[in-house]
Amino acid sequence: MRRTVLISKHIYQEAVDQLIARVAGKDGLVCQLTDRIGPSLLDSAKGLRVVSNVAVGFDNIDVSAATQRGIIVTNTPGVLTDTTADLAFALILGAGRRLGEAERYLRAGRFNQWRINLLTGWDIWGATLGIFGLGRIGQAVARRGRGFNMRLLYYDPYRQSEEVERALGVEYASKREVLRQADFVTLHCALTPDTHHLIGPEELALMKPTAVLVNTSRGPVVDEAALADALQCGGIAAAGLDVFEHEPAVHPKLLTLENALIVPHIASASVATRTRMCCMAAENMIAGLQGQRPPNIVNPEVLD
Ligand code: DGY
What we know:
Elements: E1 5-7, H1 16-23, E2 28-31, H2 39-44, E3 50-53, H3 63-68, E4 72-74, H4 81-96, H5 99-107, E5 128-132, H6 136-147, E6 151-155, H7 162-168, E7 170-172, H8 175-181, E8 184-187, H9 201-206, E9 212-215, H10 224-233, E10 238-241, H11 252-256, E11 260-262, H12 271-289
The structure holds (2R)-2,3-dihydroxypropanoic acid (DGY).
Residues 33, 55-57, 80, 267-268 line the site of (2R)-2,3-dihydroxypropanoic acid (DGY).
């Protein structure tokens, strides 16, 4: 039987009505992390059977609402792990060594002489890297940190086995100790009610004034206004951000701060990885519509 699938474009929340109108009568929806898939949309698409997200994160989808309606939800894990870890590490390097600021300085024609203290930053090699969330991406960042001879601390509500910890060379510590000891803190947790504002004023106050915060997970994991204040008043040294609390908006203060290295949610944006993500989303969709178990199903209970 012929099935119809809606492939959404990059529609932000204000266009939810448009998406609701277009999904009516479709069997499948291939959506992106910018599409909010909630009960009203799901109810407007009576025959919808599969929602295939082109992202590993699926906080944009109300999974329990989909499950209640018998709709399969899928994501794209694995294929973007190393590409995302590369960008996280680029932000660690770039924020630590003030690359954005240095480039702006040079382009503004201000480089008129070498100076001993010109744009001095913070060493990455040998520093302590604090990883929040030691899933696939957190582990890939740990491997990169090892290459820079970093001490690797991590916090995750689910502690890894001793074997995994030993193989990666990571030490488990409490959230507080990771924040207190790390020179670089990098976030790799999914956005859930538990991780919303995981890093807020209290957590920022625990960090060293020389510390750098990197976020490639989801914007709301960090209280962006509190971060902007901490960066402005020297509470922490710098931040490298790929994601923002109210994307695509960025806190206006962050846009003015030299010590914020900010990029527009590009962590998985290599040609090869984005291609793999799209293919994976298509494969998940086809399997689901053919009555098979999609390889990357998020809510397997829906098939019970
Ligand atoms: C994801 O897949 O969740 C990423 O944020 C996309 O870059």
